[in-house]
Design brief:
The chain has one domain (12-395): Growth Hormone, Chain: A (Up-down Bundle). It has 20 helices and no strands. The chain has helices at residues 2-5, 11-29, 35-42, 46-74, 76-95, 100-118, 120-128, 133-147, 150-165, 167-178, 181-188, 198-204, 209-217, 220-249, 254-279, 284-303, 309-321, 326-338, 343-372, 376-395. Helix 3 (35-42) packs across helix 4 (46-74) and helix 14 packs parallel to helix 16.
């Protein structure tokens, strides 16, 4: 308790980062609620909608390292605020969409760019700076946990508005909720006034973005983590985009989709807290491997039998616990490997791999669904490569890998 009391000066920054992350991720994870009604209303295909989500993930992933580099050079505040404004604009364009192009620009390009500037990697980098190293993993878990609450609000809100007034009303409701990110980003941006720890600043002062990138790309533990992160993105984006559609095809009540997404958000809190705590005590890379393996087993269990309301909610609870627990582990590993100065950028490099997986999870699953009329092949592929990724990540923790040249000491 005494150690946590030392965080009081940093609380406005941490709360701002957590609220910003909560709303950004909650809205993004709930967009799948609008897929079926939007597809019917606009006369487009499922793969057209999922193409927009796939483009969102690609834009998010490829822009993330550049957003991190700009934040290091110019400060977090302008990057975070630009992201929030693009997010609101993207929701506005989506609400007014008349066809595939509007969906792609709104839900795809604009929201993708916004997420690169104000979502997980940036929020974790903001939260890492103002806290001591001994508490960093726990604090990252706390911020990630609070950031998980957004889906518990946005999913039921979107479903109620869409059921009563149409899917466009649901998107407008999301845009109104997104306005709360403006003050949150302002408070989080105050981290620019917090200096880097002296030891880290001295070690990385001469390093350029290009030099750090080159070191990351030849650092074996980082590359293993990054490749496994690809599978993480594939599995999670398949679920957040296609679970409502899958339940609709199985004849489930549409509200069950919102309840499942809300359940995922609720158990994200427990998972983030647990893995943030565990990452401060055990090998973070080993925890990642175990998480990926367990998640794949849970996926197989759920899709092997027709869904029921009970099994769906149990599945959502289990997946929620294993969902955002990845965030504090990845952020903590990057900070340990390369320090704080370039954390947002290096984490962005890893996140690019995650988003390539997300592209396949959203768009690839949509294409396979259009071709086969079901999700059988999609979930089997997701389980198989998830088991492979978890095994490789776990095995990679057994040897004693060399540490990175820019290892942080603070």
């Amino acid at each position: 308790m005494h150690r946590l009391a030392g965080l009081r000066p940093s609380l406005p920054i941490l709360i701002g980062a957590a609220v910003m992350l909560s709303i950004a991720m909650g809205l993004r994870q709930s967009l799948g609620l609008f897929m079926q009604p939007a597809v019917k209303d606009l006369g487009i295909r499922v793969s057209d909608f999922t193409l927009a989500i796939a483009i969102q993930n690609l834009a998010w992933g490829f822009v993330q390292p550049f957003a991190g580099a700009i934040a290091q050079r110019r400060g977090f505040a302008p990057v975070l605020m630009a992201g929030v404004l693009m997010y609101i604009a993207g929701l506005g364009v989506l609400a007014m969409a008349q066809g595939t192009l509007g969906v792609i620009i709104g839900a795809g390009v604009l929201i993708g760019l916004a997420l690169a500037c104000c979502a997980s990697a940036m929020a974790m980098a903001v939260a890492s700076r103002p806290v001591p190293a001994a508490l960093r993993s726990t604090v990252l878990g706390l911020v990630s946990a609070f950031g998980s609450l957004g889906a518990m609000i946005s999913a039921p809100l979107g479903q109620v508005l869409a059921a009563g007034w149409g899917w466009r009303a649901g998107v407008v409701g999301f845009a109104v909720l997104a306005l709360a990110m403006i003050p949150a980003a302002w408070f989080a941006g105050r981290v620019d006034k917090v200096p880097l720890p002296a030891a880290v600043r001295g070690e990385t002062e001469a390093a350029s973005a290009l030099a750090v990138t080159r070191q990351a790309l030849v650092h074996w533990p980082f590359m293993v983590m990054t490749c496994a992160y690809f599978i993480c993105g594939l599995q999670l984006m398949f679920l957040s985009t296609h679970l409502p559609s899958y339940l609709d095809l199985c004849g489930m009540d549409p509200m069950l989709s919102a309840q499942a997404l809300g359940m995922i958000g609720g158990f994200n809190v427990l998972g983030s807290l647990f893995f943030g705590w565990a990452g401060g005590r055990w090998n973070k890379a080993g925890l990642l491997g175990g998480l990926y393996l367990t998640r794949s087993v849970v996926l197989a269990w759920y899709f092997l039998a027709p869904p029921t309301p009970t099994t769906t909610l149990v599945f959502a609870a289990l997946m929620g616990f294993l969902w955002l627990g990845v965030a504090p582990l990845i952020a903590g590993l990057v900070a340990e490997m390369f320090g704080l100065r370039w954390q947002a950028m290096v984490q962005g490099l890893a996140f690019t791999s995650h988003q390539l997986g997300s592209f396949l999870g959203a768009y690839g699953a949509g294409l396979l669904f259009d071709a086969a009329g079901n999700y059988d092949l999609v979930w089997k592929l997701g389980v198989g490569i998830g088991l492979l990724a978890g095994t490789v990540q776990l095995l990679a923790t057994l040897p004693r890998w060399p540490t990175a040249p820019l290892r942080a000491t603070a």
